[in-house]
Amino acid sequence: MTSVAEILKGDRLAISRLLTEIENGTSEGKRTLNELFPHTGKAHIVGITGAPGTGKSTLVNRLAYEYRHPSRDRPPLSVAVVAVDPTSPFSGGAVLGDRIRMRDVAGDPGVFIRSMASRGSLGGLAQTTAGLVQVFDAAGFEVILVETVGAGQAEVDIVDLAHTTLVLEAPGMGDDVQTIKAGILEIADILVVNKFDRPGAKNTLRFLKNMLRQFDPEERYELHHGQRSPFPDLPITESEKNKPGWDPPILTTIATSGEGVSELVERITNHRNFLLSSKRWSLKEERRIKREMDTMLQRELLIKWRDSTSSTLYQRTLKKLVKREISPQRAVQFLLEGDQ
Amino acid sequence: MEKSQKKIKVLIAKPGLDGHNRGAKVVARALRDAGMEVIYTGLRQTPEMIAEAALQEDVDVIGLSILSGAHMALAPKILEEINNTGLEGVKIFLGGIIPEEDKPKLKELGVHGIYGPGTSTKTIASDIRKASS
Ligand SMILES: Nc1nc2c(ncn2[C@@H]2O[C@H](COP(=O)(O)OP(=O)(O)O)[C@@H](O)[C@H]2O)c(=O)[nH]1
Ligand SMILES: [Mg+2]
User: Fold this and answer.
1) Which atom of ligand 1 is nearest to the CA of A255?
2) Which ligand has the nearest atom to the CA of A170?
3) Whole-model pTM above 0.95?
């Protein structure tokens, strides 16, 4: 039995065990999450996405350190890290290597680092990442850094989870029109050119600046985001729509030395303040929680449907489909409405 | 779609000062290919760092690679630190060049399995699976 009280007071062993329960989808984990949920909503959730090798883990290490030991006049904040790495589709196993880069905050009781495998989920996060974040939130961690897999096209899942999304680019990663994907500008609240010590970094920066100049902030992902869910969002009021928006800044960092990281934390904090002052924080929260519910609803509906549908009907329909006697469209109709 | 379920979680750590981690990496990959989730922490881990990582990652198994010959100094310290975390039932495996005469002492301390160089990764994977079932 996981005690909610133990989590709320930040007991590390209890937290760690609960994270495992949630990752494994146990009823114990779900029950505890239900009880913890009213205690969430306080943390600043920051997503870090970008292609593998751009320096996400190294930067997370520096960000965590800067939050713990502010080089400017900021109070130190407690930090949880959730680092997601891909599950091998062949074996179902994974090598989670992000901790290698996160050594500077080792031994700090104000930091908790948890690695997780994506376990077959696409979109840059695991199905249970949001649950893990909720545990850290309830346990009182003030900042939660979420490192995505980084292998997907545009890893939009992180936008649903994070208040502030950083998109990392680095020189020498083939920084041209093909690899700096359309889509990243829509999801970035802050763009970061990391590895600014490497040759070609200035070109990457110039290129991104040009792209950003051509970019219409109205196309920002959060504005027409409801399309991802079949269920309509709560409407945005006219006054919300007309509020001045956020212009994503481009920052440069050298994560290996820590250069630019203090400035980056400053901007991340600014973004949080912007969200709070413009009421977008609550708007974002509203939509974030709604999307989580929608995703869960779709998942559970599928399970419910599967449990109530005979597997013979499924197999029979599949056979007809494979023989091309019926179209996929018809097949779905059979499965949902019966084979009349 | 893959259903989420209990996965065996293994922490692979290299305590001590020697700089070779090829063996540890090979084992990490082999365990991944055996369907396990392997947290790889890299070189020069202190006993405190290993215990902290084990606690935060809630692992079932810890694989230690010690080539420096310092196993008799390191293993007891690491086991003690892990006990201090309150984690229960974590199985410790040790890889490296361990002299025969040291093995009984290590087992007595609570080391679950000891593997010399050249041990088949299949053997290691199947031993881990048995130990954590
Ligand atoms: N030169 C240089 N190398 C960096 C920098 N940041 C990260 N790296 C290196 O890039 C490699 C990949 O970093 P990692 O953080 O694992 O990237 P991730 O896959 O995005 O998490 C490592 O070898 C880092 O040491 C940087 O600012 N400059
Ligand atoms: Mg990484």
Assistant:
1) 27
2) 1
3) no
CATH code for the domain in which residue A123 is found: 3.40.50.300
| Residue among A91, A97, A128 minimizing CB distance to B34 | A91
Tell if the CB–CB gap between B32 and A88 is shorter than 8 Å.
yes
A111 C-alpha to ligand 2 centroid (Å): 17
Which residue has tokens 């065996």?
B8
- For residue A31, tell me if it sits in a domain: no
Range of the domain at A78: 40-280
CB-CB contact of B16 with B70 (8 Å): yes
Q: What is the ipTM metric for this complex? A: 0.93
Q: What residues make up the domain containing B103?
A: 7-132
Summarised one tens digit per residue, pLDDT across range B66-81 is 887 888 888 999 999 9
**Residue pair A334/A317 in contact by the 8 Å Cβ criterion:** yes
Beta-sheet pairing, A111-117 with B9-13: unpaired
User: By CA distance, what is B42's nearest residue in A?
Assistant: A100
- CA distances in angstroms from B67 to A7, A218, B76, B79, B107, listed in the order given: 39, 58, 16, 18, 18
Per-residue model confidence as pLDDT tens digits over A1-37: 568 999 999 999 999 999 999 999 999 999 999 999 9
Locate A288 and state its tokens.
């974030």
Decide if A91 and B29 are in contact by the 8 Å CB cutoff.
no
